[in-house]
Design a protein that fits this description.
The protein is an alpha/beta fold. It has 13 helices and 8 strands.
Length: 468
């Protein structure tokens, strides 16, 4: 009986010999067609751990970590990874997270499971956990993964390995020191800024989320080394978190270093592109001129886009990205983070566009046909759908109201006495560098046969000291 080969040799045709291209060839074509190349004069890094994409808050919860999958697939499909340093960061560890958060809260996060609810008194979770901040399988891993990515990005900036560092899984700005809030458990932004403060005397934090960045503002309430600027929808009674009014500018006591360093731009429903961009420029310019930051952190929450499931603005993707572009032009070390955004396809479009802004590339609107899950961007399959027509919300921001906001920002900045001193301010340790230094010392001591004494004298991951 004649034998037939089970496996036949297959000779792949040379590129161009057939219309069937490999994925690498398709991506290379997108790189050429979009003119993607490494930026000249500065370095951009991209920090993403695919494990965070697998987390699931629950079928009815609006937070969908899967939006990160869509984002990363777009970045790779366009070939933007070719213009950046790509990192898969490790998870943050316990010592790193208690640099800001209380240890009992972190211990709770790393031991709790959904089954534990049966043993709770009155069936209520502590630490503000519940419907908005559910306990789900892998919760602690999720927290440590997105926080680790922000810490890694911050360290690349402080080590001068990156000028712009991107972590779209971060930006969870509502979390408090010992409390979850607004879908946020660990405040990775605070942890990252603490790292930046190890090297930078002044950090400007900018928040583009439709919700007020209350957790970051609260964390740096009493210091002049961080200025927070949040543009958001404000309604004290009807819109979460109900904070960030025009008069919320920091401690009331002018003797407190943090007085007038919490700046808020409280907006009404329905603001459009041109107004938003101009308002952003009008409040940013005096902040930069007065405060003179040495590094910038920008939170790019996608829920300020038109059509968002929880948002109420009428912004398009390019308008949101124009704020990132304007910030980039400052030429300061820059940390770019994600945040809110509850229509996953539009969040992915936004963050892909803002990645292109960071690398200085104008992308073609039509999505690459080889993009995985491209059906989720149907029917138009474009990077820039019209999100403002028809407008879901009437624009309630009058010209006078917007002028009043700008005047209020100018008024608050009159109280800011230029660049703050860094004397006697808390400087967090650079844990990674500290551990490496200690490990080197231990190795040297092993060679000298004197390990035990030094291990007792010095502890890896120790808390910081005060700088004089």
């Amino acid at each position: 009986m004649t034998r037939t080969a089970v496996v036949n040799d297959y000779n792949h045709p040379q590129p161009g010999a057939t219309s069937t291209l490999t994925l690498d060839e398709k991506v290379a074509r997108e790189i050429r067609n979009n003119g993607i190349q490494r930026p000249q004069g500065y370095t951009v890094s991209f920090h993403a751990n695919p494990e965070v994409e697998k987390m699931h808050f629950g079928p009815k919860h609006p937070m969908k970590p899967w939006r990160l999958t869509l984002t990363n697939k777009l970045v790779l499909a366009y070939g933007m990874h070719d213009a950046m340093d790509m990192y898969m960061p490790r998870a943050a560890d316990y010592d790193e997270m208690i640099e800001y958060h209380k240890d009992d809260y972190i211990n709770f996060l790393r031991t709790i499971t959904p089954k534990d609810k049966l043993e709770l008194e009155n069936n209520q979770w502590p630490y503000n956990m519940g419907d908005d901040c559910p306990v789900f399988d892998g919760l602690y891993d999720y927290c440590s993964l997105y926080s680790g990515a922000s810490l890694d990005a911050a360290r690349k900036v402080t080590n001068n390995q990156s000028d712009i560092a991107i972590n779209w899984s971060g930006g969870l700005h509502h979390a408090k020191r010992a409390e979850a809030s607004g879908f946020c458990y660990i405040n990775d932004i605070v942890l990252a800024i603490l790292q930046l403060l190890y090297h930078h005397p002044r950090v400007l934090y900018i928040d583009l989320d439709v919700h007020h960045g209350d957790g970051v503002e609260q964390a740096f309430w009493s210091t002049d080394r961080v200025m927070t600027l949040s543009l958001h929808k404000y309604d004290k009674l009807q819109f979460f978190p109900g904070t960030g009014g025009m008069d919320d500018t920091g401690p009331r006591n002018n003797a407190n270093p943090g007085a007038h360093h919490s700046l808020n731009v409280p907006l009404q429903d329905g603001i459009h592109d041109d107004e938003y961009i101009q308002l952003f420029k009008d409040v940013m310019d005096p902040c930069i001129a007065t405060y003179r930051p040495t590094a910038v952190v920008i939170q790019c929450g996608g829920d300020s886009l038109g059509g968002d499931r929880l948002g109420c603005f009428n912004l398009n993707i390019r308008a949101h990205g124009a704020c990132v572009e304007y910030t980039k032009r400052l030429g300061l070390p820059m940390l770019v983070l994600g945040g809110g955004g509850y229509t996953p396809r539009n969040v992915a479009r936004l963050w892909a566009h803002e990645t292109s802004v960071c690398i200085g590339t104008d992308l073609q609107p039509s999505l690459p046909p080889h993009t995985p899950f491209i059906e989720h961007f149907a029917p138009d399959k474009t990077l820039y759908p019209d999100l403002s027509h028809p407008a879901r919300y009437d624009n309630k921001n009058s010209e006078k109201y917007l002028r009043d906001i700008v005047e209020n920002i100018h008024e608050q900045l009159r109280y800011v006495e230029g660049s703050p001193s860094v004397q006697l301010q808390y400087v967090p340790p650079d844990l990674g560098a500290l551990r490496e230094e200690i490990e080197r010392e231990i190795e040297q001591e092993k060679e000298a046969g004197d390990v035990g004494r030094r291990k007792k004298e010095r502890g890896a991951g120790g808390r910081g000291e005060y700088a004089h």
